[in-house]
Amino acid sequence: MKSTKSLFYILLVLISVLYTSCDDKLTETNVNPLGVDPETVNPNLLVATIISGTAKPYLSESYNGNVAGAMQYVQKSGWSSGLNKFNWVGERSWGGWFANLRNTDHLYRRAEEEGMEFQMGIALVMRAFNFAYIADSWGDAPFTDALKGITGEQEYLFPKFDSQEAIYKGIIDDLKEANTLLSKSKGEYDRIDPDADLIYHGDPTKWRKFANTLMLRYYMRLSEKDLQYAQSGIEEIISNSGTYPIFESEDDDATMGFVGTYDGDSWPANTTFDASESNFNRLQLCAGFRDVLVGHNDPRIGVWFNKVRVQIKVSDMYSPVADTTVDNIRYIHPDSLVARNLAIYDKDNWVANIEAGKTLVDTGQYVGMPLGAFVGEGYTWNLNPEPRQGGFNVHNSALADMYKEAKGDYLKARLISYAETCFILAEAAQKGWSVGLSSKEWYEKGVRASFNIWGIGDKADAYLTEPGVAYDGSLYQILEQKWIANWTVAHEAWNDWKRTGLPDFTFGPNTKRDEMPLRFMYGNAEKNRNNTNYLEAIGRLEQTQYVATEGIDSPWSKPWILQGTGKPY
Prior knowledge:
Elements: H1 2-16, H2 24-29, H3 44-63, H4 66-70, E1 74-76, H5 81-85, H6 95-114, H7 117-137, H8 154-157, H9 164-181, H10 204-221, H11 227-239, E2 254-256, H12 278-282, E3 283-285, H13 287-295, H14 300-304, E4 311-314, E5 323-326, E6 329-332, H15 334-339, E7 342-344, H16 350-355, E8 359-361, E9 413-416, H17 418-430, H18 439-453, H19 460-463, H20 475-485, H21 490-500, H22 524-529, H23 531-538
Helix pairs in contact: 1-3, 3-6, 3-7, 6-7, 7-9, 7-10, 9-10, 10-11, 10-17, 17-18, 17-20, 18-20
């Protein structure tokens, strides 16, 4: 019932923004009988649209978008140059994110008019999240003057770009205001509709924790640029839990489930609404992620991915036959490796073998496609017997079957989690900041939280004793486990990597550039309609040696947050 009601809210809000004339009476009364007047719309009707309009695009970039590929969670077997090869050169519109922001602005104004502080708090949290995504992804952007075009004043039609620093610190101010607005008990708020709230179903305490936990994320984001500001901000939150409550368990995670009634309200790349299964089949495990998961004996790999349907073995069992498949095992004669210029995949030397002109063969039970290994598309990887666009590869690990579904208990867009919170605080403690517990304690809490999320909490203790997993005090280990835990939250893992250079990734010689991208290029709307402010903004970028013919507005230029840090390169 809740899912049906939520879908109704979304449809109603979409209808409410239509301004088509229906008859002479509409002209006379200036009322649309088919919609809801935006000036009098119930704020609850906007809440579901804002949440869904934020959560699904965030998930899509983080699960099957270019960032998910760059962070080596997945690769695609076809139509994949952006995801597999860092081919990010080209404009990238932020229109959808600013559409969300216009909705948050309208929600805040309507809620303020109606005296609905809970909805005002939601608006500020979602405003902060959307502006942070923009600053994280593009760099400088309209912030102070954004969303004011409704006034009709000329300066707001062409808004100036604020610095990343101003945006991040403005976001933190918004979250502090949200913390205050959301500090009452549920019974003290007016007209909360649990069905409109797709994350916490009308619980102001959880929204308050969400706001303060996001502050931890953005304070840490600033730690390489303004250490004192970041440290004092995080320490203030942790030392004043009554004033700034944060996530305390996985039950607090900011997640949105899916309705599953049509493709638009379902898990991305599902097969329920794609009978061809092409989108699902093309999305496969990446070798970089596989190597770490297998190397640590990580049981999460079996939750997220399937073993190969047909494993490859190098054996002379069926000699003199060079290559044969028996009982779902493909046997390749050792002499055939030499004759066909094949090399067994090894995480330490596969790039050298690619550069030597060899074709790689992976003999694991879990197999991942290496990033940047192919001149063309990846559907030929690992001697695929049926290489074609959109086809399945029996020799590479597909995503787990649950990801074929339109909805499910584990199929949630995750905006921020308790596991991420623990790893943020583990890093803070590792830096020597006062955050209540030791770095080791927060680190182990983060690992356990991730295992709990995926229903394998009983395996966490054993995992924490594995070589390379047992706490050793290194920042590398904290960031590596945070990266693993951020499966389907690749956008946040990307921001950690940009800030720290961790984890240290290996990729092949066939990428667009020799390093990973740092940002998105601005869209044509900014170049064409707001050119003066656009030129001023790109003038504040710092070129790296990887910038080429695209000019300074490049995915390889450094925005403010990275300038002077020496990270990630």
